[in-house]
Specification:
Bound molecules: S-adenosyl-L-homocysteine
CATH architecture of the largest domain: 3-Layer(aba) Sandwich
Distance between the termini: 54 Å
Shape: globular
CATH topology of the largest domain: Rossmann fold
Number of helices: 11
Number of strands: 16
CATH superfamily of the largest domain: Vaccinia Virus protein VP39
Largest sheet: 7 strands, mixed
Strand content: 25-35%
Structural class: alpha/beta
């Protein structure tokens, strides 16, 4: 695809879908827009390095989700919810989604039609197939397909799965998830493996990670590798260092750091993610990493005096960190803090706190993880000012 043209000229449903908020800009214009936003929010802390963009900013999403529904005429469709309402925009292929994942979803749509499997109807809350989620590892080639159904009935389940894997031998596992709630969340709590192990393995920065249906895992593998390598470069780890990985998810940053550091302690709120992090530690033969299921701020406050990290990584959700965590971080006094952020406004707020409490910003590096959307990822290095 041509990155000198804006998405509005490349995608027939760009306007309706609304997923690409910067669809009126070509790729270079998007990068400039993101830079100026970063500079306006972060310049008071120091120089903002040039944003690292993608050579090919298309089909980068390794995780693809499609909602299933039907048109007024009763035709089965799959696609994306229209921006600001709950109508589904039919999508056959999307310029930012993985092509193989899109093809698998199209096949499911065709099979659902031909096997006459009822599609879920959000008005009456009846029917079966509600969403399909596909996650592909670009490094191992493994593919996870999750079929989300509105309740536990699933007519032609075996037939659908068998035909799907026959048509797409690249699929390594299929999971059925049940979500019967009135919710905009895609996944419910119940998972049932229908084929394979229920998870795939991805390789990132020389480590292996297990990803299951509910795992949080970055969606753009090419840029994630660049982001995490920057985070490691900033951390400049020594094999005697103790590392604290806050908001650690399935342990990605912590396990990559564990190869270079003396010891890693990871903390994460989601019990499922912590379970995955422990499995991932074993998968990588890592013996110097521990993972705990707790609120990061509560954990670090309670560990005051007992944990003395040399380097602190934090990678919080969009809302950023909180006073409890940041105060405990300042009290723990790590030499370096590496902050990975997916929202520059909350990043600016948190940097304001840390710079007022003994830290100085050394590097600010934006990375374009989400081309064509308005999201901006940043990695920041801070160090403790000696008193
Ligand atoms: N570092 C990981 C995950 C980052 S996403 C990666 O790169 O893959 C942010 C994570 O913070 C999520 O896994 C979320 O569950 C977790 N989280 C949210 N609030 C938290 C809190 N108060 N304490 C600890 N973890 C939290």
């Amino acid at each position: 695809m041509d990155k000198t043209r804006p998405m509005s000229k490349l995608c027939p449903v760009a306007k309706k879908c609304g997923g690409c908020q910067l669809s009126n800009m070509n790729y270079q214009e998007q990068l400039s827009w993101k830079m100026s936003r970063e500079i306006s929010l972060l310049k008071r802390f120091g120089r903002v390095e040039e944003i690292i963009g993608m050579d090919d900013p298309f089909h980068y999403r390794a995780k693809v989700q499609a909602a299933f529904g039907f048109t007024r005429g009763g035709e089965v469709i799959s696609g994306i919810y229209q921006s600001n309402c709950h109508r589904i925009v039919k999508v056959d292929s999307c310029a930012i989604e993985d092509r193989i994942a899109d093809n698998i979803i199209l096949t499911v749509r065709r099979l659902v039609k031909s096997m006459k499997i009822p599609v879920f109807d959000e008005n009456s809350m009846t029917g079966c197939v509600r969403h399909v989620l596909v996650r592909r590892s670009f490094t191992t080639g493994q593919v996870l397909v999750v079929i989300v159904t509105g309740d536990r009935s699933f007519p032609s389940k075996k037939n659908l799965v068998n035909t799907l894997i026959e048509k797409h031998p690249e699929i390594t596992t299929v999971v059925r998830n049940v979500n019967g709630g009135r919710t905009s969340m895609v996944l419910g709590d119940f998972n049932e493996p229908l084929y394979g192990d229920g998870y795939i393995t991805d390789e990132l920065c020389g480590c292996r990670f297990r990803i299951s249906a509910a795992s949080f895992y970055q969606v753009n593998p090419v840029q994630t590798e660049i982001l995490y390598n920057k985070a490691m470069e900033f951390a400049a780890l020594k094999d005697t260092d103790t590392v604290f990985d806050a908001y650690c998810g399935v342990g990605t940053i912590g396990l990559i750091a564990a190869k270079r550091a003396g010891k890693v302690i990871g903390v994460e709120l989601s019990a499922d993610a912590v379970r995955d992090a422990k499995v991932n530690a074993r998968l990588n033969g890592t013996e110097n990493a521990e993972f705990y299921n707790a609120d990061a701020g509560k954990f670090l406050t309670e560990a005051a005096g007992k944990i003395r990290p040399d380097v602190l990584f934090l990678d919080p959700p969009r809302a950023g960190s909180d006073k409890r965590f940041l105060s405990a971080a300042v009290a723990a006094a790590p030499e370096r803090i590496v902050y990975v952020s997916c929202a520059p406004d909350t990043l600016a707020r948190d940097l304001g706190f840390l710079t007022a409490n003994g830290y100085k910003v050394r590097k600010i590096q934006p990375v374009d993880m989400f081309p064509h959307t308005a999201h901006i990822e940043t990695v920041v290095l801070m160090s403790r000012v000696k008193d």
